Amino acid sequence: MLVFTGTDRLMHFLWSAYADDNHQYHKQFVDHFRKIDVVIGEIAADLGEDDTLVMMSDHGFEGLETEFFVNRLLMDNGLLKFNPGTDANLTNIAFGTKAFALDPGRIFVNEKGKYPEDSVAPEDKEAVVEELIAIFSEVEVDGKKAIKHIYRKEEIYSGPYVDEAADLVLIAESGVNLKGTMASTQLTGKGPFTGKHTLDDAFLLVKGDTRRSD
Ligand SMILES: [Zn+2]
């Protein structure tokens, strides 16, 4: 098994070089993929009759327009609080918190019996879920909706551990990168990255001898 990790790093930091033909590193960016093509070609050329070559990517990429700090939105709406004088992180969540987020857009209701400072009684959970859906459906970045889709856990998870899954999973609009960071003082921001993951992938399966007699 062989993993190419460089493509991921390159696209996080230098998607801008890919997108712009005139970028100073555009050629180096494209050359990196050409080199990987050559390596894949060498592997494919060595396949015997009984061999199978499987290639896959676990996600796709697109340009990153803005980071979006989901927990900041929860704090601004009074749904997430931290104990006074402590750092904003998971261990300092205060009683009275109704929900918190983990990367990239997983929202957990602070339900009684599940977390240390549990604050939401089971009979109140649905009301919190609906409040969250209303907030995330409306929120905008630069005049555009930030969230494309909101899944309830029952829609996307099943099995014996479904109770431990996030209560809501957010899918962002193109270019919006959801972050579970708790310490951000801003709702949006831009770090060093110019590219972000997407849900797209690629898959190729090649069976047998690819060598040709010609
Ligand atoms: Zn990555």
Give a verbal description of the structure.
The structure is a single chain. The protein is of the alpha+beta class and 214 residues long. It has 2 domains: 6-61 and 196-207, no CATH class; 66-189, Gyrase A, domain 2 (2-Layer Sandwich), CATH 3.30.1360. The protein is 28% helix and 25% strand. The protein contains 5 helices and 13 strands. The protein has helices at 6-19, 26-45, 70-76, 125-138, 153-156, and strands at residues 52-57, 60-63, 66-69, 99-102, 106-109, 140-141, 144-145, 147-152, 168-172, 176-179, 188-189, 195-198, 202-207. The strands form 5 sheets. Strands 4-5-9-8 form a 4-stranded antiparallel beta sheet. Helix 1 (6-19) crosses helix 2 (26-45). Bound molecules: zinc ion (ZN). Zinc ion binds at residues 8, 12, 197. Residues 8, 12, 197 line the site of zinc ion.
Q: In summary, what is this structure?
A:
The chain has 5 helices and 13 strands.
The percent range for helix content is 25-40%
Q: Bound small molecules, which ones? A: zinc ion
Count of strand segments: 13
Give the termini separation. Answer: 29 Å
Alpha-carbon Rg, integer:
22 Å
Give the key terms.
single chain; 28% helix; binds zinc ion; 214 residues; Gyrase A, domain 2; 3-stranded mixed beta sheet; 4-stranded antiparallel beta sheet; alpha+beta
